[in-house]
Amino acid sequence: MATATSDHPSVPAAAPHVLVVPCPAQGHMLALLDLTGLLASRGLRLTVVATPATAPQLAPLLAAHPATVRALTLPFPAHPALPAGVESAKHLPPALFPALIVAFAGLRGPLLSWARALSDSPDDRVVAVLSDFFCGWTQPLAADLGVLRIVFSPCAACGTAVLQSLFRRMPRRRDGDEDDNESPIAFPDLPGAPAFPWRQMSALYRNFKPGDPVSEELRQNYLWNLESSGGFVLNTFRRLEESYLAAPLADLGGIRVARAVGPLAPMADAAGNRGGEADVAAADLCAWLDGFADGSVVYVSFGSMAVLREPHAAAMAAALDRPGGVAFVWAAGPAAPLPEGFEERAAASARGMVIRGWAPQVAVLRHRAVGWFVTHCGWNSVLEATAAGVAMLAWPMTADQFVNARLLVDELGAAVPVSWGGLEAAPAAEEVARVLEEAVNVGKWGDMAARAKELAGEAAAAVRQGGDSWREVEELARELRDLGSQPRQQHQ
């Protein structure tokens, strides 16, 4: 058995004990840790699983709840498909992400031994497992322990259901044409029966290889999610996705309506460095933004995992580099292939800033000067922009981003599309520049900006005391507390 370390071993033995298993991917961890903090403040004890590489991300949570949250740090399991030393999705090539998910499942045995060692203690025994949807292997773990498993998704209800549906139904391209990237993939069990071209489906599914061990284990993770008697908990809110939360969906287990508990947000003192130490201090960046008029600055970010291809980076840079162009902050990350001299010209113009490391995104989006957000439509970014009331310029690339973008553009009217080409086709710089000009300087999409402000009010109402999401968290906490008095075998 692997050796585990517990950072806070002296947790009071008074409240029901929940095992929390985040996926080792930054965007996934952040939201589940936020939810863990909410549950800790509602009379639960929680042990959060980490590995040496991901354990530092737990520091703000542990500091805020030293008596009720502890970390269980386990060595990351070795796997032949994964390079040695890799423990998280950070800087991991997208093609290796399935191997990361499968490798992480190697913690099932150590966690079973750890939990069984506590099972004879009424105070310490685990009463439920709360885990990321990429950790479907925790379903048989929970079954072995005779406890409830609850599936957490940091994604939208629609995005989660689409991904689950792909691996449940295994749809193929029309007429078996393996070269037809525009072949529509329909989702008849979802509200409105949406359809998307094959190229807009998650690469996790498009790259599935029947018979390949990693592919088959990946699919099994999704199928296990459908067995969860605890249902799905989603980082979204009812007014954002009403049609997907009105009734049980087959692709979300079909047992009960999924709980919408979002938008989950960081603690106030952790917001500036959410997800990591910011390359630019939030206070310094906000002081720079103070010099601009309300809504006149565009924030650009394609997420923590994306590595922009050169044509995409060149189009974005050329659109921003034009004389008289819009003011901007671009969180480009360390690996984006920006054109030579672009960063220097941006700094010299006094209207542009390029951030090469981690950006304090929450603080940027909440600044009055930021009016538009060029985004890849990753769900964390979508929710942070929604909560801040910032309208989005949608440029989805991969994963669930196209589904999210369609929700924003077609259903909610809160975003303007920049490009639907994804990783395969970059838009012309002239087209990107036109969208920026019409959004910021012309004010063509004032209705989008107004809708974004309206959604911000709805998001705030959802998480306030008595709001829809607040009540869902209360009910989830009550359900977990009630498990403490039930026999262990009840959920076996």
UniProtKB/TrEMBL annotation:
Query: Gene3D superfamilies given for it?
Result: Glycogen Phosphorylase B
Q: Which UniProt keywords apply?
A: Transferase
Task: Outline the extent of the Glycosyltransferase N-terminal domain.
Answer: 18-143
What family does the entry list? Belongs to the UDP-glycosyltransferase family.
Q: Which PANTHER family match?
A: GLYCOSYLTRANSFERASE (PTHR48047), OS06G0282400 PROTEIN (PTHR48047:SF6)
User: Organism, per UniProt?
Assistant: Urochloa decumbens
* SUPFAM superfamilies to which the protein is assigned, alphabetical: UDP-Glycosyltransferase/glycogen phosphorylase
Q: Which InterPro entries match?
A: Glyco_transf_N, UDP_glucos_trans
User: What's the protein name?
Assistant: Glycosyltransferase N-terminal domain-containing protein
What's a single GO MF annotation on this record?
Answer: hexosyltransferase activity
